[in-house]
Amino acid sequence: MQILYLAIISISLLLFHNTNTIVLVQALTSPSDIAALGAFKASIKPSSIAPWSCLASWNFTTDPCSLPRRTSFICGLTCTPDSKTINQITLDPAGYSGTLTPLISRLTQLTTLDLSDNNFFGSIPSSISSLSNLQTLTLRSNFFSGPIPSSITTLKSLQSLDFSHNSLSGYLQNSMNSLAKLRRLDLSFNNLTGSIPKLPPNLLELAIKANSLSGSLQKQSFEGMNQLEVVELSDNALTGTVESWFFSLPSLQQVNLANNTFTAAQISGPHPDRGGITSRNNLVALDLGFNRIQGYAPANLASFPTLSFLSLRYNALRGTIPLEYGQIKSIRRLFLDGNFLFGKPPPGLVASGTEVTGSLGDNCLQECPTSSQLCSPAQKPISVCKRAYSGRPTSIPVVG
């Protein structure tokens, strides 16, 4: 039935009836692309295609690449300069509901496929691997399920991959590092499990937050990633120690490892490389909140000259707040609340006129001035603090 439907589409693009006369229409778009577009639209529920939407204008009695586009194919796709093939499909967020047809593989010149913010469901077809020219693949905010097809790793031209906010499951492919041109990877808000595999070496942005990843951060997973700027791995089940090699990644700027089960973090400050230039000085934001990190707050964080946001909230930190924290000129937001820190806060943090916001509350601090916004909420009861420090400490040092 589908073959017959596609044949009718192909014929209708060449012939149409006008005042009882068969008229030949000059075909620009390749028949294979037209058939693939027809199959793509046929896989979407007609009831989900609103009259004002892009797909409603896809009228196959007109050539998709013909110009000017007055009433048909007015949006949702673009053609190559020679008007013979489709090179981009970017749907509007109109609530389309349906599956992604395997026949999408016939659109071999596609460089962009963006179906974001709709209601597509079902699996991602493995035939997508035939789109060898694809540079941007965005299926964000749909209802795709099942595993990420292993064939994805054959898309050597891919630069941006966004499957976030779906229901994908299974493990990440170990061969993902073969995507040498990939710059942005976002798999956040899915049901992915297992450990982090070896990652593409030229990534700028990595986001796999809000999944069920487990295991520790392994050096071999991040090996050679000299351009990595953003790491978003919060809300998983990652554990172990965040080791010093991680903070040595030379381009690192923003790190979010909150809401995991890390028990320690080894942080060393920037140091000169062989040329005498500081190689680790780009860190702007670090979130290690809501883990199980024990020991002392790492004073070496004060060595990062551009650090603006720091959160170590709700861990199991003990000891005093390093005086260096009050000397970080770039810091604007600091969250150390929910630990067992004692002593006096550094004067530079609670002095009148400070620009630092955040919280030092819910600790065991003494003389935290109520006039300082940082001292809210209130400190822990003395009885809780005494119990926390009774007996011999068994904490794991943060600074390795």
CATH architecture: Alpha-Beta Horseshoe
Average predicted confidence as pLDDT: 88
- Percent of sequence in beta strands: 15-25%
DSSP, total strands: 27
The tally of domains stands at 1
Low-confidence stretches: 1-26, 274-279, 391-400
Percentage of residues assigned to helices:
10-25%
Predict the CATH topology: Leucine-rich repeat, LRR (right-handed beta-alpha superhelix)
Query: Which structural class do the helices and strands define?
Result: alpha/beta
Give the strand order of the largest sheet, numbering strands 1, 2, ... along the chain. 3-4-6-8-10-12-14-16-18-20-22-24-26
* Radius of gyration computed on alpha carbons: 28 Å
Distance between the termini: 66 Å
CATH homology superfamily: Ribonuclease Inhibitor
| Silhouette | elongated
Number of helices in the DSSP assignment: 5
Largest sheet: 13 strands, mixed
CATH class: Alpha Beta
Write up this protein.
This protein is an alpha/beta fold and 400 residues long. The protein has one domain: Ribonuclease Inhibitor (Leucine-rich repeat, LRR (right-handed beta-alpha superhelix), Alpha-Beta Horseshoe), CATH 3.80.10. The protein is built from 5 helices and 27 strands. It has helices at residues 2-14, 31-42, 244-247, 347-350, 382-388; strands at 15-18, 21-24, 77-79, 86-90, 97-98, 112-114, 119-122, 136-138, 143-146, 160-162, 167-171, 184-186, 191-194, 205-207, 212-215, 230-232, 237-242, 254-256, 261-265, 285-287, 294-296, 309-311, 316-318, 333-335, 342-343, 357-359, 364-365. Strands 3-4-6-8-10-12-14-16-18-20-22-24-26 form a 13-stranded mixed beta sheet, with no helix packed on it. Strands 5-7-9-11-13-15-17-19 form an 8-stranded parallel beta sheet. A hairpin with a 2-residue loop joins β1 (15-18) and β2. α1 (2-14) packs across α2. The protein is elongated. The model is unreliable at 1-26, 274-279 and 391-400 (pLDDT under 50).
